[in-house]
Amino acid sequence: MVTSQAAGQPALDKSALNQPVLELKGIGKEFGAIRALHDVDLRVAPGEVVGLMGDNGAGKSTLVKIIAGNFPPSHGEIRFDGRTVHFARPIDARAVGIEVVYQDLALADNLTAAANVFLGRELKRKFGPFALLDHKAMAARALELFGELRSETRPHDLVRQMSGGQRQAVAIARTRLSNAKLVMMDEPTAAISVRQVEQVLGLIHRLKEQGVAVMLISHRMPDVFAVCDRVVVMRRGEKRADKAIGDTSPEEVTSLITGAKEAA
């Protein structure tokens, strides 16, 4: 079973930061005659936040879908936790500790926060030959997860009444339920208010503090520079840059995205 640091446990061993939780070597993907990705190398360490940027058609979505198990690479190697992995389905990626928070969040508006956290993984209590949903246990665990994320979201709140930031908290809590080691977040701050953006960036900081690796797929330059340790720039299916945030600038990243600068 995949485990990760819980609240109250000792801080993450700094030496572990040198060992990538995810390592891609020469990843390529072709769809017939169309080359979507070409020889992409990438490393993500525990507790590291990596921004993935690029224009539409740059290859970001294809790369994320390969990591998430939606389809296999045409060539190259994926290593997770030090071993080579092959994903036939998204459930295979989830089994090793990879979770994706998609832009639409895939939440059920008519259900509570706790019910959404446990959607498809409900806790049950057996009464002889019968099994009933254990709503009390699910609410208690959801409350713990929201506490770890320092979110004001409450287990019994209905999702349809939540702000964008609260919805993100529910989606992220769901990844913590499975003890994810890598969380990929697709445009989490799109179309929400400035205050809600701050809440979401705070949630990413909480994941980092707990030793979870995060890949932030975003078009929002301020968010990437506010929360990420490194930024990876994709263009036309190739990785054009992989730099520490402190060693680059929004202007340079913009140049790389648009092609004004070829590589860095």
Kindly list the characteristics that best describe this protein.
four-stranded antiparallel sheet; disordered N terminus; alpha/beta; 8 helices; Rossmann fold; single chain; 264 residues; six-stranded mixed sheet
Alpha-beta content class: alpha/beta
Mean pLDDT: 91
Helical segment tally?
A: 8
CATH topology of the domain at 20-108 and 179-258, which one?
Rossmann fold
Radius of gyration: 19 Å
Beta fraction: 25-35%
Helix content: 25-40%
The CATH homologous superfamily of the domain at 20-108 and 179-258: P-loop containing nucleotide triphosphate hydrolases
Strand order of the largest sheet: 6-9-10-3-11-12
Following the backbone from N to C, one meets helices and strands in this order, namely: EEEHEEHEHEEHHEHEHEEH
Low-confidence stretches: 1-10
Describe the fold and architecture.
The chain is of the alpha/beta class. The protein has a domain at 20-108 and 179-258: P-loop containing nucleotide triphosphate hydrolases (Rossmann fold, 3-Layer(aba) Sandwich). It is 30% helix and 27% strand. The chain has 8 helices and 12 strands. The strands form 3 sheets. It has a 6-stranded mixed sheet, sandwiched between helices. A 4-stranded antiparallel sheet has the order 2-1-4-5, covered by helices on one side. Strands 7-8 form a two-stranded antiparallel ribbon. A hairpin with a 2-residue loop joins strand 1 and strand 2. Helix 5 (164-177) packs parallel to helix 6 (194-209). The longest helix has 16 residues, at 194-209. It is globular. Residues 1-10 have low confidence and may be disordered. It is an enzyme of class 3 (hydrolase). Involved in beta-(1-->2)glucan export. Transmembrane domains (TMD) form a pore in the inner membrane and the ATP-binding domain (NBD) is responsible for energy generation.
